[in-house]
Design brief:
Chain A is built from seven helices and seven strands, in the order αβββαβαβααβαβα. By secondary structure, chain A is α/β, with parallel strands linked by helices. Chain A has a single domain (33-239), classed as Rhodanese-like domain (Oxidized Rhodanese, domain 1). A five-stranded parallel β-sheet of chain A has the order 3-7-6-4-5. A two-stranded antiparallel ribbon of chain A has the order 1-2. With 166 residues, chain B is mainly α. Helix content of chain B is 81%, strand content 0%. Chain B is elongated and about 65 Å long. Classes of the chains: A alpha/beta (250), B mainly alpha (166). At the A-B interface, α1 of A face α3, α4 and α5 of B.
Chain lengths: 250, 166
């Protein structure tokens, strides 16, 4: 009798495993998970396994500043360029290094910032920091980087991203099965040392949300050396009245 | 008292209620495994490599066990599975309460509800009490089944005693 109960309980668990695997196989992209999770512990950063290469010396000649000391060539995003291969030199606030960017398809145009809003003053320079996986920054720095068309990654779930996100941000949910593909694609886009030293801003829901820290660690693990985490996340962005874009496109 | 607590009238209702609770709890997790994986990660108890597999399998086991209780199929096995799951949930939440790691339990809802630390800690205490209540329901089912088994074995012994010729 007891053996029979154990067998039945095992059958329930086995049926659960089979149904779970079948359901996952047919799940949509944002509902699917990879069978083996690889989640870095956002609170304990492991030592980097790959030796860190020295930070690249600025290589481009594009300088378009008026009063600011340095410039940056950013990856093609919402408003920088209409040609995928073009690079755009823009005025900036101490962002290094100055580099050429690899070719990448330009995302669609998004909501423009409020024209009369005074530009926020950044509190720091945005140099590469290969010794740290990420640096936490607040709204003023985030807005300054956003205005310079730096790459933004949204680490929240795709469904949440579609309800509203920072204009130009790409969806990179660490909980969805295609995150490694997306990270690999980004690595392919920025496949040289200089490009990997360009700033990247990652955000999630603020508060105790660690998704952005986890994604930052993933990127740091493959040599992205200039990653920033928007510590207060999207709710803070909304509170400041900054522009928001809805839908599946950046 | 013992007779009332193990009465079939109560037992069938406990069985149906427990089954329904587990079916209802399983559906949002089945619908959104990545969010449930996130919830499991927040507990910080499981190796990263097992988080996704648990997030996939656990809701289906809950669903099947709940359905088995509702349909009255493999009742004892389903009751035992649910008992083990509840014990795991209680231990997991209690460990995090002890650590002061405020989490959403992910029991019935896997969406991030943006609660404060204090709200989460309070909810975790409520969750432990609720799960203990459900564990009592499992105990009632176990007790009723045991009593039923004892009575049927006594009846068969008595019947055997009468029928056996001297």
């Amino acid at each position: 009798m007891k053996q029979n109960t154990i067998f039945q309980a095992a059958a329930i668990v086995a049926a659960g495993i089979i149904l779970a695997l079948v359901a996952n196989a047919f799940a949509s992209r944002d509902r699917k998970v990879s069978l083996v999770g690889t989640y870095p512990n956002a609170l304990k950063v492991p030592a980097r396994e790959v030796p860190v290469a020295p930070v690249a010396t600025p290589v481009t000649q594009t300088v378009a500043t008026t009063t600011q000391p340095s410039t940056i060539t950013v990856p093609p995003t919402a408003t920088t360029s209409t040609q995928p291969t073009a690079t755009a030199a823009i005025e900036t606030v101490g962002i290094n290094p100055k580099v050429k960017t690899p070719a990448a398809p330009a995302p669609t145009t998004t909501t423009a910032p409020t024209p009369h809003a005074p530009p926020p003053t950044p509190t720091r320079e945005f140099n590469a920091h290969p010794d740290k996986p990420y640096i936490e920054i607040a709204y003023n720095d985030v807005k300054a980087l956003h205005d310079k068309n730096v790459l933004f990654l949204d680490a929240r779930r795709t469904s949440v991203y579609e309800q509203g996100h920072i204009p130009g941000a790409r969806t990179y949910s660490v909980w969805e099965s295609d995150i490694d593909d997306k990270v690999n694609k980004l690595f392919a886009e920025r496949n040289d040392q200089a490009a990997q030293n360009l700033p990247i801003v990652i955000y999630c829901s603020g508060g105790d949300c660690e998704d952005s820290h986890m994604l930052a660690q993933k990127l740091w693990g493959i040599q992205f050396n200039n990653v920033y985490v928007y510590k207060d996340g999207f709710p803070d962005w909304q509170q400041h009245g900054a522009p928001v874009h809805t839908g599946a496109n950046p | 008292m013992k007779r009332y607590l193990t009465h079939p009238w109560l037992t069938i209702r406990v069985q149906l209620a427990l089954g329904a609770i587990f079916v209802i709890a399983a559906i949002p997790k089945i619908a959104d495994p990545p969010s449930f994986a996130h919830m499991i990660y927040n507990y910080r108890l499981m190796p990263a490599s097992l988080i996704n597999l648990s997030a996939l399998v656990m809701p289906w086991v809950e669903l099947l066990a709940g359905l088995a209780l509702i349909l009255g199929v493999w009742k004892k096995a389903a009751r035992n599975v649910i008992g083990v799951l509840l014990a795991v949930f209680i231990i997991a939440i209690s460990i995090n309460l002890f650590r002061d790691n405020a989490i959403d339990c992910g029991c019935f809802n896997v969406a991030d509800r943006g609660k404060t630390h204090e709200q989460r800690i309070f909810d975790m205490k409520v969750d432990v009490v609720r799960d203990l209540g459900m564990l009592l329901m499992v105990a009632q089912l176990w007790w009723a089944a045991k009593r039923e088994q004892d009575e049927s074995s006594r009846a068969s012994t008595a019947q055997t005693g009468v029928s056996v010729p001297h």
